[in-house]
Amino acid sequence: MPATNLLAGKTAIITGGTTGIGRAITLAFLAQGCSVAVNHLDLETDRPHLTSLLAEATALAEASPSTTGRLAHLPGDVRDPATGPALVAFALSQFSTARLDICVSNAGICTFAEFLDLDAALFANTVRTNLDGAFYVVQAAARQMARHNAPPGGSIIGVSSISALVGGAGQTHYTPTKAGVLSLMQSTACALGRYGIRCNALLPGTIRTQLNEEDLKGEEKRKYMEGRIPLGRTGVPADLAGPAVFLASDELSGYVTGAQLLVDGGLFVNLQ
After folding, report:
1. Is 174 one of the annotated active-site residues of the chain?
2. Three-point CA angle 228, 243, 151, nearest 5°
3. Is 96 part of the annotated catalytic residue set?
4. 227 CB contacts (<8 Å, ≥6 apart)?
5. Annotated catalytic residue within 105, 161, 178, 249
6. Hey, what's the signal peptide range on this chain (predicted)?
7. Where would I find the H helices in 64-119?
8. SS3 content of the chain, % helix, strand, coil (to 5)
């Protein structure tokens, strides 16, 4: 299998692409020759992450100028139905192309809360971000891929979670949204197959990102989690990069759609 150029000449959009899993996928796509437009909220706390991402992208391009894709970024809130179409249009404009090849719906939030004390605002915000946001972005990408790409086609990846398959006492508002993303990918695979659009879900296990850094801060909790994972460690965002490239590449996964790819170090099969 070639180490580079698996996505050469392709164009992608990635939501939540400046931090965590989205950032790792963005850098992997760039290294494989894909031009990427990332969405972010443009919060003051996130700007250092954006600056760092831009610097890494520049370093990649300087090291391999002929094989590295280009990076662009656009602020926007995925809860707004207008954000998805705007990101698609921005990507096509920035990279002077009429084709969108890849969409990674990654943006999401997770705030742990006790079910009996969970307020309506937190529930609504989680659903609107994780599920509604995924729907709007995926729909916008699919409309471009089905109606305007010539020929039609593309790869859509929804970042779900192991939480789509198991329960979590402090995640009663979160796990249903990730199950929803998985279901969305299964249903869009059925709806969009006739256009040559592949839709698959990535299901990360316990990955150390800004979403769970507080939960894993304690040494006791970290050791407990590592003890449940057959590979003996919690994941890092880069662990999702290769699987995302696989699902994005027609060469590697051209006959894969409606699938769920669990990337968890073996945690799911060892839950007992």
Report:
1. yes
2. 150
3. no
4. none
5. 178
6. none
7. 83-94
8. 45, 15, 40
Q: Active-site residue among 10, 163, 174, 249?
A: 174
Q: Per-residue pLDDT for 2 more than 60?
A: no
Rounded Cα distance between 245 and 75, Å, is: 24
**Antiparallel, parallel or unpaired: β 71-75 and 35-40:** parallel
Determine whether 10 is an active site residue: no
Residues 129/110, Cβ–Cβ less than 8 Å: no
User: Could you say which of 160, 161, 249, 253 is catalytic?
Assistant: 160
**Which tokens belong to 107?**
């943006």
pLDDT in tens, 34-87: 999 999 999 998 899 999 999 999 999 999 999 999 999 999 999 999 999 999
Cis peptide before 151 (omega within 30 of 0): yes
Asked whether the beta carbons of 262 and 229 are under 8 A apart, the reply is: no
Nearest C-alpha neighbor of 73 from the set 99, 46, 97 = 46
Question: Tokens standing for 134?
Answer: 């995924």
8 A C-beta contact, residue 109 and residue 211:
yes
User: Measuring CA to CA, which residue among 210, 8, 218, 236 is closest to residue 111?
Assistant: 210
Place of tokens 């662990």: 239
- Tell me the C-alpha distance between 213 and 104, whole Å: 23
pTM exceeding the 0.90 threshold for the entire prediction: yes
